[in-house]
Every structure is written in structure tokens, then in C-alpha cells.
Design goal:
It contains 4 helices and no strands. By secondary structure, the protein is mainly α. It has one domain.
């Protein structure tokens, strides 16, 4: 249950972030920030729920994923403040997502 909730909320959080990059206008700000905040909370809670159910403790790769989650969560708000830097923010979001997926797939440490 937690795994499915985590995967869906991460995918939706990524989608909301990139939607904010696509249309960083003031009338969309409240809608995207509310969705991003709610999804970010779901990602956080379900991620720790998965780790608790698996009995993993708190390995190093999970710390890297928490940092990636923090960065991705903050990028939605930055899209509205740094409209001229949206391509760079989208690149950062892509790199953060790739790092998070790599960490959970290979669990290097």
C-alpha cells in the first residue's frame, strides 16, 4: 500500500513541478503550490512508511533521497520567482529525479 502511494505521489509531484515550469504565471501559482505541498507531504510520509515496513533503518541512500525530495519540493515555488531561469530549474529537477531513481534502484550505500 505504501509503495503504490509513494510511487504515485512521486510521479504526480514531478508532474506538478514540470507543469509549474510550463506555465509560471501568477494565476496558476496558488493551485500548483497547494498541489505540490500536499503531494510533497504524501511523498514524505509514504517514503518513511515504506522504509519502516521494510525494516531498513535509515541507510545513506535514503538520506540522498530525502535531499532530492527537498530540492524537488522547493522547485515548484522557485518556478514562479525565477521565471527567466525555468530551463535551468527543469534541468535541476531532471537531474534530481535521476539521482533519486538511481539511489533506490542500486542502493549504493
Amino acid at each position: 500500500m505504501f509503495v503504490l502511494l509513494h510511487l504515485v505521489s512521486v510521479i504526480l509531484l514531478s508532474g506538478v513541478t514540470f507543469a509549474a515550469f510550463a506555465a509560471p504565471v501568477e494565476e496558476n501559482r496558488r493551485k500548483y503550490l497547494m498541489r505540490s505541498g500536499a503531494l510533497s507531504l504524501l511523498v514524505f510520509l509514504s517514503g518513511f512508511g515504506v522504509m519502516g515496513m521494510m525494516g531498513l533503518g535509515f541507510p545513506g541512500w535514503a538520506l540522498v533521497k530525502v535531499v532530492c525530495w527537498l530540492v524537488l519540493s522547493g522547485l515548484t515555488g522557485m518556478a514562479f520567482r525565477m521565471t527567466g531561469q525555468v530551463p535551468m530549474l527543469a534541468a535541476v529537477a531532471t537531474v534530481v529525479i535521476v539521482i533519486a531513481v538511481t539511489m533506490v534502484t542500486y542502493r549504493p550505500f
